[in-house]
Amino acid sequence: MIKLISPRTLRKLGILGMNRRNVGYIGRYNPRKNFRLVDNKLFTKTAALDLGIPTPELYGVIDHQFQVKRMVAELLDRESFVMKPVQGSGGKGILVIVGRQGNDFLKPSGAVVGIDGLQRHASNILAGLHSLGGRNDQAMIEALLDFDPMMAQYSHEGVPDIRVIVFRGVPVMAMIRCATHASDGKANLHQGAVGVGIDIGSGASVAAVQNGKLVTRHPDTGASFEKLKLPHWQKILELASGCADMCGLGYLGADIVLDRQHGPMLLELNARPGLSIQVANQEGLIKRLQIANEIADQAADAAERISMARHEFNVANMVPLAEQAAALS
Amino acid sequence: MMHPRVQIGLVATLLIAFGIGLTLYKATRLGLPLLPGESREVWTIESKISFKPSSGPVDIELKLPQSLGGWVTLEEHFASSGFGFSVEDVGSGRSAARWTRQSLDHPTTLYYKIQAYRANEDALPEYPTRVDSPPRLKADQLAAMERLVEVLKERSTGPESLVKLMIQQLNRDDPDPDAEFLMGSYSGTRDSLMLDVMSFAEIPAHLVRGVQLQDGRRRQQLSSLLEIYDGDRWLVFNPDTGSMGLPDDFYVWQRGPGAVLRVVGARDSRLEFALVNNRLPAKTVVSMEQQSENFALLDFSIYALPVEQQGIFKGLLLIPVAAFVVVVLRLLVGIKTSGTFMPVLIALAFLQTTLWVGLAIFLVIVSVGLWIRSWLSHLNLLLVARVSAVVIVVILLMAAMAVLSYRLGLDQALTVTFFPIIILAWTVERMSILWEEEGGREVLMQGGGSLIVAVLAYLVMSIGVVAHLTFNFPELLLSLLGLVLLLGKYTGYRLSELYRFRELVNQK
Fold first, then answer.
1. Mean pLDDT throughout A218-223?
2. Distances (CA, A) of B36 to A190, B233, B297
3. What one-character DSSP code corresponds to residue A275?
4. Nearest CB to B504: which of A13, A17, A124?
5. Transmembrane stretches, by residue range (chain B) (predicted)?
6. Domain over A7-51+149-328 is classified CATH 3.30.470.20
7. Which residues from chain B sit within 8 angstroms of residue A13, using beta carbons?
8. ipTM surpassing 0.85, yes or no?
9. Which pLDDT score is estimated for A25?
10. Residue B294 binned pLDDT confidence (cut-offs 50, 70, 90)
11. Last residue of a domain, one of B206, B238, B255
């Protein structure tokens, strides 16, 4: 017999479901016309630069097939870079190069890619292999981030990124997605990556979950999640909140990475952020979203929104989910 | 400005109430049955006479059916714009419709539509027995004919077995030399050859002409049965298979000799039939006929359409039901499907192929398609070219499958053509991209999800009551629309989420 949770319990815990997210938040607070800005990473980058939000340096863009050879040849001067589709979704089609071996390129796993491999990858991106709906796309080449060493230990062959849900400019919930061997270097929770819930108040970890089960250590690197505390936390929240003003979406997921030199940088934005952040935090979104609504109505500016959020959503001030559940039964 | 939620609730309630109200009105006041229950198969047979006029007056005569074998005609309708029209008695209880016109300059189609049902399974009535005098044949034909009749008589015990033997002989791939010679040199059709053999064997015989009843057929031709007298009763044989008895699905148009259609002053004339089968109590149809003057409503029902369009709507009206199933399964249950309405189209194909055959065909084509597509992905093609290549591959697969299964004697697999090709090709394309990016598990999840939804949609569509209700009470679709609008505002949990978040309570 498959064990299910009763809808009544879910509602009492304030878990946000897919339908409610689509109708009540995405449909209501995210105007269709503003999706363009987040679905296209070049638009996002340009808008971020205008507002002084740091993003990884752009090396070049390939718009047409005939440019592929020339652009890839120029990459011979680079030690490391990332090539990705401008309109890719869910981290698809991202090729990371961390080093060189003569005229060849090295992937994080140590695998070697030749010039022709890079060209083929670029052609695939242009043909829309990785893009929403298979549309023709552009390929962009960015600087490889120099991960903060504190973050690097929590990820296996992948990019450890920080996802912050921002509602009406108020940071509501956050997590780190850590790639694992099981997730094949991808940061998708349903593929086996570890989701670490982060306290909005302090930037420290709340809980870590892999495949719906609580874990305490990264299964590949062995790093303990309990001691995890993000540096630059205030800056991260400011950055996430700033993105909301920039793109005009009321309900938004901001993906942020920590660079060793530049600190927090915006990687990409998501107009339809997933729901597993609730599992990583062991906490429902609905109540927080209601509080965030009040904060957004009261606060005068971004700084106030963040400080109110840090206070309201501080784990120390909140009742853990397990206790809520115990109180229910 | 009203709150959108209230607005939708109001519109949806109105739609649902209107649909159900109109249905109840039709059911109680007009006597249309809500359940298919004690229904009769009412066939609507539309005959189309099409021809190209030559110069001079045009004179078309169509013999009308006799209503034999227990068939009762409920309604007759003639369409004859611009023609002089009359129904004439042509003797021996037969009547014929006659269209005349002084001159005509463009190809024309005339219509004659009847609604009929088989009240009881009567046998054909008595018929005067008369042996036709043998036709005059050339010397070599005559010799072959006599030898053939002699052989048949020798090997048979009576008229019944003789006819069976003859039908067997004339349908064999390698008939004996006499039969082969006769068929080769005969000017008439095989059926007239059979009649001649009968007259040489001195057995009274004639052809029974009629329509093979197949629901949804649009260009059915007249077909013939062979009827013979064995000494004390008339027996009917199928001239192709030799099976005896009047088939249930055969509507007798004319018994005995004579042309069904006579055309003067035109060429390339054709007589074709469009057929639709409705399960309705016969009395309902009758009462509809009587009341249609009083209730303008029925004039605007699907029944007012020509038969061909009725047949199409019978299928079209089921699509909203399938779409509703998809909405429920995706929003309430949370099954992942590849493409929103791909399952609906697959379910429609299942209606034509039957479930298991359809499933097998679908799985074979998609898996072989995926295999070939994985090879195409190495070639690094541009998207449009790649999808077109997949379309071509899918069509080749379908052809190969049809030929192979036909050779193996599996006729069911011929229904492969009912699958929408473009949808199959897109499915293959999406699945293979999904495979490359998310791995085989996700392909199984989405592919399996789509199939489950398609099967459920098929099962709902093939419930007799559903087909009956959508066809007879199309206004119920308004109620369905209302429900879909309400579901569009549903913000509760999906069944899948009760599973997804199941661990949240028990931890720590």
1. 86
2. 48, 38, 21
3. S
4. A13
5. 6-25, 315-333, 345-371, 383-406, 412-428, 449-470, 476-493
6. yes
7. 504-505
8. no
9. 93
10. low
11. B255
B249 and B355 co-located in one domain: no
- State whether B238 and B343 are in the same domain: no
B230 and B319 inside one domain: no
Quick check: B505 and A9 CB within 8 A? yes
Residue B391, SS3 per DSSP:
helix
Residue B451 lies in a domain: yes
Q: Give the domain ranges of chain A.
A: 7-51+149-328, 58-142
Q: Write the CATH number for B231.
A: 3.10.620.30
Determine the pLDDT at residue A249: 92
Residues B398 and B469 occupy one common structural domain? yes
Indicate if the pLDDT at residue B92 is higher than 90.
no
Distance between CA atoms of residues A16 and A21, nearest Å:
7
Position B503 in a domain: no
Range(s) of the domain holding residue B368: 315-473
* A188 vs B396: which has the higher pLDDT: B396
- B227 secondary structure, DSSP code: E
Tens of pLDDT, residues B198-251? 888 888 888 888 888 888 788 888 888 888 888 888 888 888 888 888 888 888
How far is it, in rounded angstroms, from Cα A135 to Cα A93? 14
The minimum CA-CA distance between B375 and chain A, rounded to whole Å, is: 15
Amino acid at A7: P
Q: What is the DSSP letter of B133?
A: P
Amino acid identity, position B246: L
> Do B321 and B208 share a domain, yes or no?
no
Is it the case that residue B293 has pLDDT exceeding 70?
A: no
Distance from CA of A120 to the nearest CA of B (A): 7
pLDDT, mean over chain A: 87
CA distance B339 to chain A (A): 10
Q: Note whether A17 contacts B508, CB cutoff 8 Å.
A: no
**B5 and A CB contact within 8 Å:** no
Distance set, CA A129 to CA A73, A135, B227, B436 (Å): 22, 8, 66, 10
The verdict on residue B58 lying in a domain is: no
Return the structure tokens found at A287.
């109540």
- The mean pLDDT of B357-386, rounded to a whole number, is 82
DSSP state of A148: -
Chain B residues close to A282, C-beta within 8 Å: 504, 507-508
**Tally of structural domains, chain B:** 2
Q: Is position B52 within any domain? A: no
Question: Residue ranges of the alpha helices (H) in B130-201?
Answer: 139-155, 159-171, 177-185, 190-200
The secondary structure of residue B491, as a DSSP letter, is -
3-state secondary structure (DSSP) of residue B275:
strand
CATH class of A58-142: alpha beta
Please tell me which of the candidates B491, B499, B503 has its beta carbon nearest to residue A19: B491
User: Does the distance separating the beta carbons of B433 and A15 come in below 8 Å?
Assistant: no
The model's pLDDT over B130-153, given as tens digits with 9 standing for 90+, comes to 777 777 778 888 888 888 888 888
Which amino acid appears at position A15 of this protein? I
9-48 of A, contacting B, C-beta below 8 A: 9-11, 13, 15, 17-20, 23-24
Task: Give the burial string for A254-269 (b: 16+ CB within 10 Å, else e).
Answer: bbbbbbeebbbbbbbb
Sheet of B266-280, strand order:
B71-79, B108-118, B40-53, B266-280
A213 touches chain B (CB under 8 A): yes
Q: Are both B426 and B346 inside the same structural domain?
A: yes
Q: Which residue has the higher pLDDT, B154 or A266?
A: A266
Closest partner residue to B502 (CB to CB) among A4, A17, A19 is: A4
